[in-house]
Design brief:
Order of helices and strands of chain A: HEEEEHEEHHHHEHH
Radius of gyration of chain A: 21 Å
Largest sheet of chain A: 3 strands, antiparallel
Largest interface: A-B, 66 and 65 residues
Number of domains of chain B: 2
Strand content of chain A: 5-15%
Distance between the termini of chain A: 27 Å
Number of helices of chain A: 8
Oligomer: heterodimer
Structural class of chain B: alpha+beta
Radius of gyration of chain B: 24 Å
Shape of chain A: elongated
Chain lengths: ~220, ~240
């Protein structure tokens, strides 16, 4: 009770009023229960989501995600068997084969959206959350978390998952498609990434950073 | 009329909200005055304000939002032409190459009886990009004409474009996977076409365009109007 009480008080102190990001209207945040969402009265934008244990859950999913990400990259996702030949495909080989097909920009786009941004999201989230939880923030914590928030939309592994499904159906008629070991890890990775983005409440991280730094408005 | 009962924006109160940590900070007086005299949002941009909590650069409205968004949108519209006319990939079977554009790819899937797949690719590669371009152009024009038509609905439209835009990348990834897997020399091979790069660029440019568009501009027109009415009533 006391713990919860102080936490609510801290939130009330640091963020009593918010300007809606989409219409700039200043609104007072109401006292909220876990699971409740505060929306802008004027444009319906989500202002604040009250979540239970957001940081711990997000950290758990991020660590799970990182392990699954490594496994997903170690073994082939899909193999294609035709005319006695087998062609294997991993996450990385998608960008490599586009590079070899003389499409360096396309290869770069795929490398960024399927490997670099998801990996930085996982590593960065773990780093920031660890720092916040142990109260050991440095001057790079806030800029790093800002970077993670602004590159959030560029990790596109769930879209890659959909693309795998499309490719499997397309190729299914012509040749034997074999699901690789990594595909199972990859499916679980997609799940942990979506749980991660659902459970991570950036407000909680910012509030903690504000508390630690003692920043006043 | 007491001030607290009225709807009030951060800008009206001389505040700026940080886009990341949502901390409200006060705009220094001198910058507010410059802004009022010249009545252009460009002036404030010369002085960079930093959020006291997370040190990010803060601005009341995204600087040059309309110009940047138009530039990105026009680039996207231009690239949309090669994205649809150039082949996105060439399927080589037994030495015969068959180039496919986005539309012919969908038609081939329909001919092969793969209706759900054809529908999915049609939505992701044709419907969503066109819808997104049209919505963004519509929003831009409505802001420039200072329209007061259904601001809430327009903001919701903006949120939809922001959310669905990235799913158009699915076709680009499919091409990547096919190029990787179908590599059996002259008997069966898939090579990526220039159309794929153009299409990926369209998706990325429209994502950036949605990002540089500031939905608060939709509401500024409404706020200015109510402000004017209020002043008239008081007189």
């Amino acid at each position: 009770m006391t713990n919860q009480g102080t936490q609510q008080k801290q939130t009330a102190e640091t963020l009593s009023h918010m300007a809606c990001a989409h219409c700039d209207l200043i609104q007072k945040l109401p006292a909220m229960q876990v699971g409740e969402v505060a929306r802008c009265i004027r444009c319906n934008n989500v202002l604040y989501r009250k979540q239970k244990n957001s940081l711990n859950r997000a950290l758990a999913f991020a660590i799970t995600g990182l392990i699954l990400f490594v496994i997903s990259n170690l073994f082939p996702l899909l193999s294609l068997k035709a005319m006695g030949l087998t062609q294997e495909g991993t996450l990385l080989s998608t960008s490599i084969s586009l590079f070899q097909a003389e499409r360096p920009f396309l290869s770069l786009i795929i490398l960024l959206t399927t490997i670099i941004f998801p990996l930085t999201t996982l590593l960065g989230t773990i780093y920031v959350l660890m720092q916040v939880k142990t109260n050991r923030i440095n001057r790079y914590t806030a800029p790093l978390f800002r970077f993670l928030r602004s590159t959030d939309a560029w990790g596109m592994l769930e879209i890659f998952m959909l693309a795998i499904l499309v490719a499997v159906v397309k190729l299914g008629d012509l040749a034997d498609v074999i699901f690789g070991i990594s595909l199972y890890a990859f499916c679980l990775l997609i799940l942990s990434l979506s749980f991660l983005s659902y459970s991570l409440n950036p407000h909680d991280v910012w509030n903690r950073l504000r508390d630690i730094k003692g920043c006043q408005i | 009329m007491s001030h607290s009962t009225q709807l009030s924006t951060a800008r009206m109160q001389g505040l700026v909200a940080c886009q990341f940590c949502h901390t409200l900070s006060r705009i220094p007086e001198e910058i507010q005055n410059i802004n009022r005299e010249e009545d252009t949002s460009n002036k404030t941009n010369n002085v960079e304000l930093h959020c006291p909590c997370c040190q990010s650069v803060i601005h009341s409205r995204i600087p040059d939002s309309l110009n940047k968004t138009w530039a990105l949108l026009i680039a996207a519209i231009i690239l949309y032409i090669p994205a649809n006319t150039l082949p996105i990939m060439t399927v080589i079977l037994w030495g015969n190459g068959q180039p496919d554009t986005i539309l012919s790819g969908v038609i081939h899937l329909m001919d092969a009886g793969m209706w759900p797949l054809a529908l999915l690719i049609f939505i992701a590669s044709i419907f969503i990009p066109i819808l997104k371009l049209l919505i963004l152009i519509g929003l831009m024009i409505s802001v420039q004409l200072k329209s007061r038509w259904k601001p809430r609905d327009r903001t919701i439209l903006y949120r939809i474009t922001e959310f669905i835009g990235r799913w158009s990348m699915v076709d680009v990834f499919v091409i990547g996977i096919l190029v990787t897997l179908v590599q059996f020399g002259n008997t069966a091979m898939v090579t990526p076409g220039l159309g794929a790069l153009s299409f990926a660029s369209v998706v990325i440019l429209t994502m950036f365009a949605a990002h540089t568009f500031d939905p608060r501009l939709i509401w500024d027109v409404i706020d200015e109007h109510t402000d004017k009415n209020r002043n008239n009533n008081e007189d």
